[in-house]
Structure formats: structure tokens, C-alpha cells
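Might you be able to consider the sequence and fold that I enclose below?
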Amino acid sequence: MQQILILGAGKSASILIETLLQDAFEHNWFIHVADVQIETAEKKIAGHARGAAYGIDLENEDQLDKLILAADAVISMLPPPLHIRAAKKCLQHKKHFLNASYLGPDMQALDEEVKAAGLSFLVEMGLDPGIDHMSAMEMIHGILDQGGNIFMFRSHCGGLVSPESDDNPWHYKISWNPRNIILAGKDGAHYLADGEICHVPYAQLFDPGRTVHVPGYGDWAWYPNRDSLPYIKKYELEGVSDFVRTTLRHSDFARGWKKIIELDLTNDRDKTDTNGISINSYFRPYLKEFANWDEILKEQFRFLDLTRDELINKGEAAPADVLQSVLEKKLALSENDKDMIIMLHEIGYTLESGDDIWSADEEMAGGRSRVGGKLCFRKASLVVQGEDSVHTAMAKTVGLPLAIAVKNILNGKISRKGVFIPVYPDVYEIVLSDLAKKGIVFTITE
């Protein structure tokens, strides 16, 4: 019987755990779930005969060793800084490793040792990063196989609120790690536009006027993700003039979050004692100019109810910590709320032909109104809606790629070794095929 260990049982792990348990008898698996709160792990296992729950102290090296030693593959759903500790244990004990977080230099440094050990360390295997890579590479390789010359690539993805549950002026509810939402974009972003590298500082990142149209779902504001530039090489697109990976939000959210940044409410460094301090007194200095704000901003901040007398009582806390505690309550998914995932890829390319043509889409063409050969644009869109506050679209699109990948690593269909992300046909063809069977399918338009 093959043993699969999942470290972390938070919101994004729900569908992953549920799927692996559903398939456990068919594939002769036993699923071990460990979390710092054993009650959370027990709730996800729900008494399944092929599952076991554990409480784990992440500082307890012996406990972590024991759990990993008993596994054939380990999936880390821990906070990103903790992945490397689990990965090094997996290398030490010769176990496969997967996660859904970005590949960092410390993980990449393990590549040669992982290859020598004959192991698969598959990372960036969730939604974004994950499904975005696989679907983009399928499109890119398809266009290149046609003889296309790609000059523009844009990839947008957002974890949003489904229209029927959109009932607040932020047009947003939290469906994944709230800390990541609070600190998103702190380092600014880098991407390529018109052949030039663009550097966007944090203060300018959330621009409500920077939008993209999603067929059937209207216009959405986008902000560039971190550093898009390394993915140019990973996507085999050296020579493109436009390349960006972005996050989608409602334009009103971008407007409100820009104000939050201006107020320095995402400051996670400067801590003060919040015991005995009310929300009203804490936020009052930040709201001195409230009367001069426009009505959208006023409505958004009134919704957060920052004038109430409830005590914070979080001990030493930075503004980001206090803001997070407020948003976790005010922007929470209620039991019957539904979230929504939107992903959109836009690719501009040319195909050799005997005639020059005029571009039908000047904005997408980035100034290419006339080119040699046929000018083409291809879009691929994906929309997934959640069922409720547990079976969310976010949990589904993060969890299913990991569940499919670990199955195919254990059965030998994914045999690539080393530390890698899913940009290779021998990985993405298998996973995308299985995702399609689960209803995760892109709509392609030319």
C-alpha cells in the first residue's frame, strides 16, 4: 500500500484531501494528514478508513522525520517558508515531494541531488502557479508547432467572488490564505511591454484603470505578478516584446486597495501593543482625511466598520496584522457563498503568408498595425465556480492538480526527475487530460 503524506490541512487542502481519499481504495493508498491543529486534520479525514490525522509541531524534527519516513510521497500545503524544510527531509529520506508554491532558489539548489536520488520534486503545481503554466505551455507549443512566431504573451488569473455572492462594496471575499492577500505585491513587479522592462513599485501596483475583458464575465482590473521575466525563458519565449503574468481583481477592489497601501495599512514591520486598544481608536489616525474621499472609498471603509469599539487584543501587532484580523471577519465567505476562479491567456503571434494584413486588435497588437505574414491572436479562458465555503473553486483548482500529479508520479506515468515545474509535455499533457475529466477545461477563441 502506497502512503501519501499531506502537511497542512487549511482551506486550499480541502479538495486535495477529499479527492485522494475518494481514490484511496482504487489505487491502494493510505492518506496521512498532519496539521498544527489536529482538529482541522481530523475534520478533513472525516473518519475515512484509508486516512489518519495527526497534530504536528513543525519545530519537532523527530516528529517530522517519522511522518516523512512512513510516506512514499509528501505534499506540502504549509506556508511557503516551510516548504524547504519538508523538501530537505524528503531528499534525506528519498521521498517524492510536491507543492503549489513558487520555486525559490533554495529549492532549485536541490535539483542535482534530487535527480541523483531518482526523485520527483514537482513544485508550482496548483492554480497560479500550476494550471496557468500547463495551459499556457499547451497553447505555446501548439502555436510553435504551427510555425507561429509569438510576440506577445499575457496570462491573467484571479481568485474572486462568484456574482451571486458578490454583496459587498469590495466585490471580494477571502477564499485562500488571508496573509498572502494582505501582503500581495509588496515587492512591486517586473514585466516586459513593447520590448522594454517595466518596473512597477508597490504604491502604483493596484491601478483600477488597467483592465482586461473576460468573455462572458466583463472587465477586470489586473496587476502584474512579482517578476514575470524569469518565465520568458521557462516558457521558451525568448524574443517576445510583451510578456506579463497578472492577478485579476474587481476595479473597485483595486481602487480601495490602493488607498489601503497609501495609508500604510499593509505595513508588517512597525508593531505596537494592541491589548486594550479598540478598533476605533487604532484606525482613527488613518482615517483623518475620510471626509475628502470619494463615495466608493467611503462605502468600502464603512463596510469594514473601523469605528466600532471592539478590542483588538492581539498583543504586539503591525498594521497588517490588525487589518488582516478585520478582513478575515468582514470579507469572509459565509457557509453558502461561492467563490470563482477566472484565468485568461492572451497570445499574439504571426504565421508566414504571402500577404501583409492589418491588425483587428490594436491594443493586443501592442502597436503592430501592419506586419509581414498573418497576424493572429488566440485566447484561452477558464472559469470555475465553487459550491460553498468549503468546496471552493480555489480549493478545487489548487488541490486537483496536486492530486492528479501525485497519482501519476506514484504510478510512474510522470517519470521526470529533479526539481521542476509543470512546463513539460510529459507532465502537463497527463495532468491537463485528467483535469478535463474533472470539468476543468479552457475555452479557446481566435
Remarks:
- The CA atoms of residues 99 and 171 lie 29 Å apart.
- The first strand starts at residue 2 and ends at 7.
